[in-house]
Amino acid sequence: DIQMTQSPSSLSASVGDRVTITCQASQDITNYLSWYQHKPGRAPKFLIYDASELITGVPSRFNGSGSGTDFTFTISSLQPEDIAIYYCQQYDSLPLTFGGGTKVEIK
Amino acid sequence: QVQLVESGGGVVQPGGSLRLSCAASGFTFRNFAVHWVRQAPGKGLEWVGFIRYDGTKRDYTDSVKGRFTISRDNSENTVDLQMTGLRAEDTAVYYCGKDGGGYWIDYWGQGTLVTVSS
After folding, report:
1. Averaged over A20-35, what is the pLDDT?
2. What integer pLDDT is reported at residue B103 of this predicted model?
3. Which of A4, A51, A78, B114 could make an SS bond with A99 (beta carbons 3.0 to 4.6 A apart)?
4. What count of other Cβ atoms lies within 10 Å of the Cβ of residue B86?
5. A contacts of B104 (beta carbons < 8 Å)
6. Residue of B2, B39, B45 best to disrupt the A interface, most CBs of A under 10 A
7. Strand pairing partners for B50?
8. What is the mean pLDDT of residues A13-37?
9. Which of A38, A45, A96 sits opposite B103 (nearest CB)?
10. What is the mean pLDDT of chain B?
11. Are A89 and B40 a contacting pair, CB within 8 Å?
12. Alpha helices in chain A (DSSP H)
């Protein structure tokens, strides 16, 4: 199984700050990586696929990059509504696996 | 709009069984795979398994193989997760999700809580 290591597990930043989350795969997954936003009590929301393709309607302050084993998710200017847990997920091979999540809070 | 609604959660004793259902609408259901993902209390997301659009392929995470079975009814737009031999570690919120065409999950339900406890 492909292991996804996500860091940090939590972070606290001010409104307007740039926030960066990393996700590392245990083997080459090309660009078969997606990112999700999960707010408590709500359905997870799909943000990015193929490592960098932003879903229609997702604010442009969200960005994804990377390939191979190392990936990055960035919020260019943190907003209060971005408070959530963010997950990466590889779909290079089954079983699908998620990173451990990054809890983003406002300082 | 795309909607997925899970039902069937509840409290069950260890070793017991439970059947979850996922009702889908707002898209051509028969054309898409469906996944089940769970989140144990205080933990992250864990993929449980999936069923191909036509039901001909299913796969599961190792910890549920032989205990959980996913099925679908393309005439009713539903996917079921039959869970047997339930263990305390199966306690979680279970989400169903529509496959986006490449094994990513583009729409998710709100989830249903399964608690395994005596």
Report:
1. 98
2. 95
3. A4
4. 22
5. 34, 46, 49, 89, 91
6. B45
7. B35, B59
8. 98
9. A96
10. 97
11. no
12. none
One-letter amino acid for residue B65 of the chain = K
**How many beta-carbon pairs under 8 angstroms link A with B?**
65
- Dist. CA B35–CA B22, nearest whole Å: 10
Nearest to B47 by CA among B81, B11, B85, B88: B81
- Residue B52, Cβ density class (10 Å: 0-12 exposed, 13-18 middle, ≥19 buried): middle
Q: What is the predicted pLDDT for the residue at A51? A: 98
Residue of A nearest to B49 (CA): A95
Identity of the residue numbered A87: Y
Length of chain A: 107
Candidates A102, A79, A77, A84; CA nearest to A18 is: A77
User: Which pair of tokens denotes residue B78?
Assistant: 């539903």
Token pair for A86? 């963010």
pLDDT band at A76 (very low <50, low <70, confident <90, very high): very high
Angstrom distance (rounded) from CA A24 to CA A30: 12
Burial label for B44, CB within 10 Å (0-12, 13-18, 19+), is middle
Positive/negative CA dihedral, A56, A58, A61, A65:
negative
Supply φ then ψ for residue A72, to 5 degrees: -135, 140
